[in-house]
Amino acid sequence: MDILIKLKKMIKKCAKSINSIVIEDEEPCCDMREHFLVSKEGNVEAINFPLLKEYGKGYHIGEDIAEFRKGNAYVIVNMKTGKLLKISDNKGNLLVEDKAIDFESIHEHLEHGYKVDSKHVDFWLERVSPMRDGFSALAWTIYPEGRWFEDEDGFGAEPNEKAEVAYCIISSCPEIVIPYQPMNNVDAVLKILREQKCKIKQKKYEIK
């Protein structure tokens, strides 16, 4: 089933998360931004924030959200609330809960989908969109395109023409609101969620 069709059914499940984003935007439980120094270039330095000490400098991805990497370790932090979402450790092990991965969909649609069972990043884990209107997307490359295996003489390539990638949607809370799974159109999924957040925010203003 296409993710856009599934998404319509998942909106209700995401409603609580979307509502939480709106509430935290307007009424954060605390403001931790004094612990983060953001440069004009978008580089972020955590100050007196022990949980990020090992990561060094990070990068501002939008809306007071920063990402920090050290080797394979990857963490996302809301600089306003201080909340962290740890994605992977330095050994490349995914730290997310099993519910954050749609194993069934990945097994069904990706030839090498079985590789997700170990919850280990063998290739790449990256952000593929900025944080905007409360949402961003991450991409987990399960298996690269065949040419990646070529040696310098052009031998060794595998037959698959496209990389096998699973995407997840994260919120600014931060949390994973749509689990890792194949997605035909990530931008369209983000558009629907962002519009839904704007609708909820508008309704709150109208009630006020």
Strand-and-helix sequence, N→C? Answer: HEEEEEEHEEEEH
Question: Tally of extended strands?
Answer: 10
Q: N- to C-terminal separation?
A: 39 Å
Shape: globular
Strand order of the largest sheet: 1-2-3-4-5-6
The main β sheet shows up as: 6 strands, antiparallel
- The mean pLDDT is 84
Helix content: 25-40%
Query: Unreliable stretches, pLDDT < 50, 5 or more residues?
Result: none
What structural class results from the helix and strand content? Answer: alpha+beta
The number of helical runs is: 3
What gyration radius follows from the Cα positions, in whole Å? 18 Å
Strand residue content: 25-35%
Q: How would you sum up this structure, described in words?
A:
α1 (3-26) packs across α3 (186-207). This protein has helices at 3-26, 103-109, 186-207, and strands at 36-38, 43-46, 58-62, 65-70, 73-78, 84-88, 124-127, 135-143, 164-171, 176-181. It is an alpha+beta fold. A 6-stranded antiparallel β-sheet has the order 1-2-3-4-5-6, with no helix packed on it. A 4-stranded antiparallel β-sheet has the order 7-8-9-10. It contains 3 helices and 10 strands. 29% of the residues are buried.
Short account of what is shown:
With 208 residues, this protein is an alpha+beta fold. The chain has helices spanning 3-26, 103-109, 186-207; strands at 36-38, 43-46, 58-62, 65-70, 73-78, 84-88, 124-127, 135-143, 164-171, 176-181.
